């Protein structure tokens, strides 16, 4: 990966913007800085204002691991599309009737291990179509992960897990990921290309699935194996990227 603000990156951004792309962004760690507690996350005003201007002339999407109900109240602009639960949940999309119940056994295991999880500083977030076990506030991340592993040992074959920044996520195996969700949005809008900015493990399906002519950007250079095309050093550089898009 190269920094997006190099000459080559600037040329790539200008080229994709000339094609009037779909603009898509992750929420936590991208639009909103990472915070100790998920409920405290918010999008800085300078980012919201720029996104609002872009949304007046281009399709803008937020593609997040949060639930739709959670993220909608945190946006001070109106994206055309919001996709939640790591690609599974969309306002216009219909999920399989049993998608919620696929996680019921894990919910039972979490209740059974509730005391141990709490003792190790693990916060459990039930987002209906996915479960997130956060350990950012744990005094000992290693012990917290061991406690989480005790719960996940009972995970059935119909589920999949993936990590993140101080979080372990569990979703139904047959639900779409962010890569599938963004590809579907591009088809639906008829956009000639897409730009996606993300920062975490659950954004890698987009980076891996990106089609020729897309532009993908990872916030941070902490993962040398990331499939993103370009990187930014932190989400504080996003406002300048949005200015260059305008």
Topology:
Blueprint: E1 2-3, H1 7-17, E2 22-25, H2 45-55, E3 60-63, H3 68-72, E4 81-84, E5 89-90, H4 104-112, H5 114-119, E6 123-126, E7 130-134, H6 141-152, E8 159-164, E9 167-172, H7 178-189, E10 194-198, H8 204-209, E11 215-219, E12 230-232, H9 238-245
Helix pairs in contact: 2-9
| Structural class label | alpha/beta
Tell me the CATH superfamily of the largest domain. HAD superfamily/HAD-like
Backbone CA Rg: 18 Å
Strand order of the largest sheet: 1-12-11-10-2-3-4-5
The CATH class of the largest domain is Alpha Beta
> What are the segments in which pLDDT stays under 50 over at least 5 consecutive residues?
none
Distance between the termini: 24 Å
The total count of strands amounts to 12
The 3D shape can be described as globular
Biggest beta sheet attributes: 8 strands, mixed
Tell me which oligomeric state these chains represent.
Answer: single chain
**Percentage of β-strand residues:** 15-25%
Secondary structure: helix percent: 25-40%
Query: What's the helix-strand series?
Result: EHEHEHEEHHEEHEEHEHEEH
Number of domains: 2
The pLDDT mean sits at 94
* CATH architecture verdict of the largest domain: 3-Layer(aba) Sandwich
CATH topology value of the largest domain: Rossmann fold
How many helices? The count is 9
